[in-house]
Amino acid sequence: MKKILTFFLSLTCAASLLAQTADDAIGLTQTYREGTARTMAMGGAFTALGGDLGAIGINPSSSGVLNASQFTFTPSLVTSRSTADYLGNSQSARSTGLNVSNFGVALNFDTGRYNGLVGYSFSFVFNKTANFRSSMQAAGTTASSSMLSAIAAGLDGYDWHSIDMETVSDPFSSSTAPWPGILAWNNYVLAPLSILGGQYANVNDAYVASTENYDAASDQLQIGGPLNQRFNRKTYGGNQEFAFNFGANLSDFLYLGANLNLYTLRQTTEEYYEEKAQNPAQFDDGFVSMDNSYWLQTRGSGINLKLGVIVTPIAGLRLGATFTTPTWYDLTDEWDYTMNTAFNNGNSYTLYSPTGQWDYTLTTPLSWSLGAAYTFWDRGLISVDYESTNYARTRLGSATRRSAYDDYSAENELIRSSFQRAGILRLGAEVRVTDGLSLRGGFQDYAPAAKGGTHRQAYSAGVGFNISPMFSVDLAWTRLGKQSDSFQLYDDYSSAVTVPTGVNTHSLDKAVCTLTLRF
H or E segment at 355? Predict the structure, then answer.
């Protein structure tokens, strides 16, 4: 288990609050690079190999190894799977979609020399560096806590007059109150706590939820009865890298390369939560159900510079290294909520929030990688890479002052204290069975970015068909192995209440095909 994720209320998007958290920032920073079928089949261990358009994003000097101009196109089929264990129930979810993992063109020029500048190339390559596709379902029954109770607790300190739509025309913009709380109040599932009397008689600016009953004998609040809880979450989108590359071959010994990388990022999250009374008669307020839908989209662009080198000190051996500057992103979050409520007197209500927006910057850490590869009699090769990134140096910042992080001081301090330097180990192998058939395999180990986290592995395999000197087809399959995360569907809201915690185990499979045309 890596961490506890809290849905909905952990992203309480009042206009004056920050939409992104430390975990969100690291999630956008981490890469699970795709590319051509050959690079993916060999686990991306191409820092020292080069010679493939999918590898240009890994090491820019890969284009210097090319000996012909070429074009590649790589469609992919991506499937995410998850199993969530929550309140004694297990729910499985699956999401499948078509993507493009890579396309690109390289123009190679031979100078005709045997020493000095032997050749050079200009390339444009698209590679997907992160795929956000995931899905999750959870369901269970509890009489110990509720999301509405958590929403009520989240409104502590806010005067109800400031969030009431009959009093204030637009509390979403005029108040800093959490938006789910504004919706719940105006959907009649919250009331002032003071109306209960007893120990609560003089408690101001606090709230009671329709899922809670007041027991006069004990002078305490408690959940009225069993609640059936149901949750769905779907995430999709990705981070795309557009590399403008130059590579050079010096004396067939030293290969140099540089990328100007542009990024487009889009991540969309859709969440749905419902809690429904098994027996509405047990609830003093006649509560039947509440459901809450939440939509969040993060989009933006980024830029960085990547430099790479490959050297061949002896026959068969290649050594490689890269350096990547920080990536500077300008990002925008947009979000909205919808809430529906129902009571056993037949009344039901629906309210929509406006669409919120927040602009900010994200600066990812610099990274470096080292690699070595060795070929055997032109029939096989093995390759190993190591990439290192210090995630504690990730920074969220103001959209208006890139050099200042004042608005995100708490989040950035949490990043510094909770995250660490982490590496990616990549291994790859290829065997050329015949001149037209190659078999490949790969392995990747991702060290955890979060302190106390667990490693995650990826496995891959593939086959290549060299149909002619001008055309080849490569196939690959890769699996990003299972990872388990603890989750809560809403925040802890009372020391006397235990909010249920579940475990979601998820994995991601990709099947890709690359068509390569050389000219």
Answer: none
